[in-house]
Each structure stands twice: as C-alpha cells, then as structure tokens.
Amino acid sequence: MQRVAKDRTIVSVDVEGYLVDDADRRQADIEGAIQRLLAGKPIQSDGSLTAVTLAIEAGVSRATMYRRYRHLVDEFTVQAESFGARRVSASERALCAQIDALKREATQRADELRRIRVARETMANAVYALWSDNLALRDTLAATKSNVSAPNPEPRTHQHGNPQDQHYRNCH
C-alpha cells in the first residue's frame, strides 16, 4: 500500500499505516535487544530477561511489540527460559529453596494466626454469654424472696497474698 507523505513523496505503508521502513527498523531493534539481553550486555535496561525489559531495551512500546512482533517476543521468552535454566548456580538454587521454605512457613504462620483469632473471638463470645447469664441469674435471685444469696461479684484476693491480712501475719 502506498501513500503520499508530507513532503509529497510516495512511501510504502503496511495495513496498519506504519511505514514499511519503520517496521523493518523496529524488528531490527527488537532482534538487537534480544541479542544484547541474552549476552548480558544491555544498553537501556537493567538486563533482566523479561518481555518488559525487551521492550525497554529495544525502545519499542510493549503494545506495539506484542501486537506486531509477538513472534519475536515468543522466541525471546523461549531463549530466556532455557538460558536462565543453564545459568542458575547452586547458590541461587539454594537461595530459591530457602525463599520457598520461608514462604511456606509464612503461610503456615498466617493460617495459625487466623485460627488463633477465630478461637479468641469464640472464647470472648462464650465469656460474654456466661457473664450475661450470671447477671440474669443474679437479677432473678434478687427478685425472688429467697434465703439464698449470691456471692460477692468482686474478685477476691487469696488470703495469703496480702500482708495486711491477719491470717497472713499469723502464718508467716
């Protein structure tokens, strides 16, 4: 397909309106970026073997790269995965194993914490229910004409625990 440029020259364009020369340049940029990243010699990126880094290294938008050059992205992904599998050292594998173990431990601890919180809530509800029942029983007992009296609701201290108690002074 052809169209007339601003300077009145005829240029070739593809179906999406991109200049054919631009498309060729973009493809060459992506292929060069793939080679640099796999060689460990990035120019414009951090050098990680990801599609995002490939787009940065090639100077192409991710959308364009995925839409028009998906085959190059797929090729890079396959090469990066096999390249990464060959370059992982024993110490890196050990660190990865340690990270996985720590993640499992964190998950177990989070599960345990959830169980403890549920148990705490259940116990608090049980204590509240018993306290409410106790109050109701005291009210019922106070309303009836009975010779039975409820014990003092205030907590009592142990008779040996207070040095002011006569019993404490006699025993010690």
Element-by-element helix/strand order:
EEHHHHHH
End-to-end Cα distance: 110 Å
Radius of gyration: 39 Å
**What's the shape?**
rod-shaped
What is the beta-strand fraction? Answer: under 5%
Based on DSSP secondary structure assignment, what is the total number of beta strands? 2
How many helical stretches? 6
**Percentage of helical residues?**
55-70%
Strand order of the largest sheet: 1-2
Unreliable stretches covering 5 or more consecutive residues: none
The major pleated sheet works out as: 2 strands, antiparallel
The residue-averaged pLDDT reads 79
Structural class: mainly alpha
Please give a structural write-up.
This protein is mainly alpha-helical. The chain has a domain at 2-87. Helix content is 66%, strand content 3%. Strands 1-2 form a two-stranded antiparallel sheet. A hairpin with a 5-residue loop joins strand 1 and strand 2 (10-12). Helix 1 packs across helix 2, helix 1 (20-39) packs parallel to helix 4 (70-87) and helix 3 (62-68) crosses helix 4. It is rod-shaped, with a radius of gyration of 39 Å. The N and C termini lie far apart (110 Å).
What is the fold's blueprint, element by element?
Layout: E1 2-4, E2 10-12, H1 20-39, H2 51-58, H3 62-68, H4 70-87, H5 90-143, H6 166-171
Antiparallel strand pairs: 1-2
Helix pairs in contact: 1-2, 1-4, 3-4
